[in-house]
User: Fold these one by one.
Assistant:
Number 1:
Amino acid sequence: MDEYNLTVVTDFFLLGFQCSQNVRPILFCLILVIYCGTICVNLLIITLVSTSKNLHTPMYFFISQLSISDILLTTNTVPNMLYVLLRNGGSITFLGCMTQFYFFSTSIASECFLLTVMSYDRYVAICNPLRYSSIMTKTCCVKLAISCWLVGFSIILINVSAVSNLHFCGPNVVDHLFCDLLPLLDISCSDTFVVQLEVILLSIPSVIIPVMIIIPSYAKIIYTILRIPSNTSRQKAFSTCSSHLTVVSIFFWTLFSVYVFPTKGENRIMSKILSLLYTMFTPLVNPIIYSLRNKDILKAVEKILFRHTLHQNL
């Protein structure tokens, strides 16, 4: 097909969830409540970590970075998703689509790196406790966090650049909730082999290597915990690691299901539900699983509430 005869697509039409008029308001309200809850809970974590001195530790610093990533992820996708849902479909410009795809992918990549760094932090804390303070210094933590963001923002540029150079000659209908890789490849009229190859190669440093670091780290952590003679110390160590392991399992399971090992002929509805898991559900439960069950976090909340009550009484 002569590429000069192709119609240039200047915008895309996102289908979103194609549902009845009666169901749309209910789904809209549900997603809006989850989104507002996600933003509030993650902002609470960031505020607590930045203002409470007892939370100025490497673990809570990385948790606050994870909250920033979760806010970026949900804010990039959910507002436009709500607009599409309310109108039972909506258009987005080509530039807007590529921008959304870039920041969405950056959030996912940065979160992969942050979860890896957090597993390393737990590894040092449990397997090398005497050297923890000398290894995980404030400077080291800041450098690790900056590296996660910089690598995430940089590595995704290659992928987005390749996708934006594809030809889209119509139809311009994207059967998804937002601009994502696989739905865009499905409607492209170019040969996508090179792009798919790039995605596979980029998944090695951004997904595969983090998993290969996290799994041995936790194998060593669990082995070390099982050797602790005190039941109390063993339970305390397990409680700090089980939260991270739960978050990692949910995040990487959905990521692998959608991108690395997608089911052949996967139902579109199932693909959208899986996308909702890591764009809405995971960012909401991350701070709950990770922090709001934590005694230090609860103490920090109590202090803030006490100060607020005391200020009002005065």
Number 2:
Amino acid sequence: MAAQNLQEILAESGDIVGLLRNSQVGPYNYPAVTAEYHNWINEQTAWRDAVVLMDQTHHMDSVFVRGKDAFRLFSETAFTSVKFPVNVAKQYIPATPAGHVIGDGIMHREAEDELIYVGRSAAADWLLFHAETGGYDVDVTVDRRSPMNPLGQQVTRTFWRFQIQGPRAWDVIEKINGGPVEKLKFFHEDWLTVAGVKARTLRHGMAGAAGLELWGPYDSYIPVREAILEAGAEFGIVPVGARAYPPAALESGWVSAPLPAIYTGDELRAYREWLSPQSYEAVLSLAGSFVSDNIEDYYLSPWDLGYGSFIKFDHDFIGREALERAAGQTHRRKVTLEWNAEDVTRILGSVVDVDGPRYKYLDLPLANYGFAGYDTVLDADGNQVGVSLNNVGYTANARRVLSMGSIDADVPEGAELTLIWGEPDGGTGKTNVEPHEQTPVRVVVSPAPFSSVARAEYQAGWRTGYSKLDPAR
């Protein structure tokens, strides 16, 4: 009999790491959105130099929670504070009872008793499980991300979701509005009418410049998109495709997909039994040169991901006791790892070097080949001092290959380290991993966010410890 849930899958396997490292799910896709509208290099540079339309409609889950316990549900399942008013959004980051990160996303407070979660499935599943089993008086509706491989089937969502970003973004927004639009505080919400559609707005800044995220009913997707592009034509607006979009996280300093820390622990058994065999957690693929027999070596703390300042002990939440114990300890820290240009050239050149080794293909602009990626990072003496985390790619704005990383606290900014690129033993059995050899890559420890624009514009606590502090956050 086939396994009925994640717990049964793990029990049958007996090797959690091997199961995930050899997952047959294939590559993580950004579904439904065209790969390139212009070319991915111009699409990337446009969010720094002009203005872009980013399409976030299809790659995230949306969870709609209404009822008298909606606020309490979010509060008790995340270490981030939910003491924020209506028409404001905050980051939602849940942890396990042991204090390890499960995932993250954005929670929008639409009314006193109505919140919306938007983000990847790991945090969405945690929220849904507790809504269903925790005795909360809530009504929940979930709109799952579009299928990675729809195989010709029609794809629909509850809402479309766009971002207008870049230094000319506000020119476009005010043209759509027919007049001035107040630049609200970061992560504050309002309304904007586009093509006759009343759309919700969120003051955002993925590219480090003032911009808006907008969402509205999916049946108005085409007229709204066309209206935005028409309004932006005189300002050089460029639609961003699915190839150019993901590396924006490298510039903004966000680790998009840490491994959900839910595969062990008796206190999480009920959760694993709730997760289906088709869940994100059951099928995800683990990639990279870091290999341990213990899945818990892949778990990450909030501090490892730059979320230490987000922990608020002003409320009771799952994992609070563990995080209180860990608060005074020394932790790894989030950084950007800048790849050596000569080593990048050597890896790219191996595809046409018929007499030399074949290295793991460095697919630009996004080189991730697993849902969660962990590459070993070594110091000059060959000691492991951290890991490179997912998000490996190229930004045309810096003309650099970058990785997000988590490294030991005593490794200084500017230090040169070595990242091991590729998997051992010729590669794992993932369907999207070709036979290859490992190779060392020199990397320089750099700030996160890497983008100086993002460091100057993002407020403290939003993916960075730099810059401006907005008391509302």
Number 3:
Amino acid sequence: MIRLILLLAAACVMAYGCPTIVSRAQWGAKSSKCTRRLSTPVPNVVIHHTAGAACSSRSKCNTRVRNIQKFHMNSRGWCDIGYNFLIGEDGAVYEGRGWTTHGSHALTYNPISVGISFIGSFGGRAPNAAALNAAKRLIACGVSKNFIRRAHTVKGHRNVMKTKCPGNSLYKIIQRWPGFKA
């Protein structure tokens, strides 16, 4: 089974490549104060949603990501936006802390995972196909570049902390993804 998953992930990256990743400079990030590095490849991917409004255009997603970073840094006192990557319904991936910087998204899982958050609330509806495909391609890309272990585990935020995140609709979807384990 693991061999099949690896072959499918490799085929996805070869067929489609890595998704579009909007750099921190492109979305207008503040400078990060984070210095703690992840030891890669990480064994886990933790899926979140940001709650609040979704976005489906580059300009609206840029604004949402800047607002999330501002909240995380100014209200929570974190060194940067908490997630490694964020996914918009424009089908783009927004670089948060990136592949090699320790996140602030799931307490005990921060040092052993990449945190991917879908922009919006997904309790009553699922993210669109563009966002879901971007997330799957991002995970496959991370595997192909050796940032995520080939035999990784996918978890919802609710599997590692007491929360309703990533929302029931999104959670039902990720439960069917390769590598998911509650």
Number 4:
Amino acid sequence: MNDKQPESYCDWITEDGIGELSCRMRLIDSGNYTCVARQLNRTIESVPTVVKVTGNVCKEGYFNEVGKRKMCLKCVCSGVSSLCHAADLYRWNYTMAMNDWKMKYATVVNLLSSKFKIYDHFEQVPKNTTPYYFLPFRFIRYQVGSYGEQFQYEISVDNSSYSKEEPDIILKGYNTTLLYSHKLRFIPNQSNPVAFRFSEISFIKPDGKRVTREDVMTVLAYIDTFMIRMYPVNGNFMPASTPMVMNASTDLGYHGLGKVTRVEQCRCPHGYRGSSCEWCDFGYDRVQKFSRTGACMPWEWHRAEYEKVSTSTTMRNYHYV
């Protein structure tokens, strides 16, 4: 199928020299299907059969979300495909205490240029600054399965006169920064729940501009910075022991939380994999060129780029892995 072997939803048998392919077709399974016969060094291919799967109520390049609302959402697919449908995945979550030993901390150096300073221990954070929790591995990197899902935690404050200038959440990935600010005033001397969704309606950009679905999906494709603002209690900043919960998706079965509704499953081209084509396939590696999230190029391309640099007299600025 499009020069790739069909996935696990297809079965094929051969009887008396006749091959039969049987598939449970999905919207993203449209394409060119070819029968290939190989014997020793000889290969014969049949004329491609063009298959177009219909039934999508949304226009081309969009998919119908799961659930009651049935909105048509644009296929983002890391900018490399426009074929997708709603992923058949279940909801689950990550949970961790805010003062967990894996947590790091940060301060904002320049919000417009997305410059932050990271600290391994809270004692290292300088005074007279607004500290942030800097979330660890479990909550960052590949998180497209969290699109449309909820993140929640709790905050306690001394009084209601705190500054609203600093955002409560800072998300950054692929040179794109998103900010979330809790709209309601926190009630002093009690625990205040905070909840938002990983959706364009929750965030703004540092320059105040609106956020698109592509912006959110770009960040979720690989989060490198996830920060939560801290507030003083009894006049001091201290890590809280309250939990935070981040909803995500999994294909490992039902966990009692229902299905995700707005996660896309894309038909990825050669070199890409993942529900939103956010991973590079085996034999490929990412280069930060050609698109917002970069492009997955074969190792031979990387090797050629490395040789260009290694044979020059200038300092090496490219490393082949």
